[in-house]
Design goal:
Elements (H helix, E strand, L loop, with lengths): L1 H65 L1 H5 L6 H14 L3 E11 L3 H9 L8 E3 L5 E3 L5 E9 L16 H13 L3 E2 L14 E9 L8 H6 L1 E10 H8 L8 E7 L7 E6 L22 E8 L2 E9 L10 H40 L2 H10 L4 E6 L4 E4 L1 H7 L3 H4 L10 H17 L10 E6 L5 E13 L2 E10 L1 H57 L4 H40 L4 E4 H10 L2 H4 L3 E7 L5 E4 L1 H19 L5 E11 L2 E8 L6 H4 L19 H12 L3 E6 L5 E8 L14
Parallel strand pairs: 18-20
Antiparallel strand pairs: 1-4, 1-7, 2-3, 5-6, 6-7, 8-9, 8-11, 10-11, 12-13, 12-16, 14-15, 15-16, 17-19, 20-21, 21-23, 22-23
Helix pairs in contact: 1-7, 1-8, 13-14, 14-15, 14-17, 15-17, 17-19
Amino acid sequence: MIEKRQLIRRIMKVVLMSGVAFSVAGALFTDHLVRKIHQKEFEKDAIERFEAIQLGVRQYLNVVEDIRGLFAASHHVARDEFGEYVRPILERQKGFQALSWNLLVPGGEREAFEARVARDQPGFRIIERLPQGMVTPSRPRAEHIVVYYIEPFASNEKAFGFDVASDPVRLAAFELARDSGRTAVTPPVRLLQEAGNQKGALFIHPVYENGQPVRTVEERRTYLKGFAVGVVRFGDLIESAIIGLSPRGVTFWLYDTSPSSAENFLHLHVTRLNKTSKASDVPPVPPPDAMKVIKAFPVANRQWRFTAVHHHGHEGGVHYFIWSVVVVPLVGLGFTGLLLAFLRRMQHEEQRRQAWEASLGASEEQKRTIIENAPFGIVVVDAGERILEFNLAAEQLFGHVREEIVGRPVGELVPPALRTAHQAGFQRFRETGADRILGLAPFETEALHKDGRIFPIRLAVNRMAMPSGVAFVGMIADITEEKQIYSELIQSEKMAGLGNMVAGVAHEINTPVGIGVTAASELEERTRVFADLLHKEGISEEELKAYLASTLRLVALTRGNLERAADLVRSFKLVAVDQSSEKPRAFKVRECVEAAVLTLQHELRKTQLLVRVSCPHDLEIQGYPGAISQIVINLVNNSRLHAFGPEDQGTIGMEFSVDGDFLAFSYRDDGQGMPEEVLQRIFEPFYTTRRDLGGSGLGLHIVYNLVVQTLGGTIACHSAVGRGVHFSIRIPLRAVENQPTGDLPA
């Protein structure tokens, strides 16, 4: 009795000390956990806003770029034609302050230009703004960049006739766009039409003379026609991009951090969650101790940074110390009570155990109870392949009752397609004592249900010694639901990729179709004028020749652009149909690969990457063209996202040849490569190093499954930092449909 009381006192001391320890640990853990939960929620909400802003800015850049199609279709675009084209765009994209056509006017042609415009706009002069803010006629220059057309005119008349070349900041961006042939963005500038304090920027895209070569900087300067310009206020642009998002307490700052200039503040958004909050409640810069998300993204030639904090009144961060202090006593009492209850339960369990052992009288029955209550199937097999044990979970998995299956061959649980390999494994063990899977990590295979149904399982096998000899213990879990979820996830990733492909092809089709429609409209108008002259006044030989020449030019322009659109539709249709088909067929490899690459042109033209395909024109195989297309698309996208930066130049090469009964596919890029630790994991599902750019970690995993499972081939990857990447793929020239999967080695 004395020993028991001493033992109880010792246990109580341990409980009290443990209670104090758990109280402190619980307070720290609770504070850490709550902070982590809020951090994750805040990061998700902040990234949602960042992605909306990034997408919105990209759409606005695309709008300015697409305006070039209007000028590419004609040597002259009238003011009312420009207005009719851009007004629907302004209705949809509320972030634009204006869309304008800025015409290049040589200094020697200034007087004639001003006189010509003054006939429609009396008093018109090319103007510039002095540092004091006053507007004055522009000083003589070698070239003037004049705001010629602008919509809406009513709220932007102050900018009409403005000489962009008079402002060094604006001029630098226009010259960059001219020399690069790409869209350029100005630093933050004060707009001429701005009445308040809000800053804005110009999105600029160059337009060159139709049909002239513009491969070099000198050619671009020679044949420059003017610029399509989008005028945006930062506040209008950003708020229109996130207008559809529900308030979540996220306040964020937007900065221009381009290396060519000092850091410039662009916009501050104060969360709408607290309706009393306003910009004056928020510090001018993010507090250093606040919960933050910082993201940077390129905007044409500029670099913008998004910095978000969780906004609570005047505080720059979220503090949970008070809540944790309230929780500490409760946590301490709770843990102490749990420890006492646990000790009491241990005493009761010990009493029950002793009573149970006494009633059973043998340790064998204890083992049997443990096996029966295991949450996974347990099957014990002797060296002669006979089943010795079969627990309750195994009965539920296989549909067999223990009494009917014990003593029967374990091969009855193996699908017919795997029995030969299974029996060979047992035979090898009996003859040599060698095995392939004993003691290894669980692997996936298939099993046979009593009703004849084959279902996927995860199996781990270990060897144990028994009085009667060696036996094997198999631990089995049904992974049917897991496989289904995984399959749906893979399919979702494929459909997401197809969706991106659709968006890209649609964008690529937009330009040639728009040019074709514009050219057809001009042809219709010229034909109507020609018909009127023919019936009323008659026409001269020179007028007839001019009409025929313009008609042939417009018909050629329309036909060329419609053929380009047809090629895009044909390529996308071929790729989409092949990806939805599950039947092998004969196809030419080069046509399949080139169609896949063509569907990626929308993304590739934003880069400086060159894709080269080396494949015999007559190389034909019997297989799954959809799988080949998906492999090519995933590999190119992987190189684009991981191997090269936004402004990097690079080359992607694909070579195809016949090697015996196999198609040898060699894929290379000369990008930044990868370290050994990344190379070892690239085919793992959900492993990615660029989750910040939307990487899911499934692209190369899908490639691996398509090569190995769908096509029955092999794939290997070689890479080193700074030395690019090389994928070596071998695929049978003739695919076998519906091959059985899974294996059950011993």
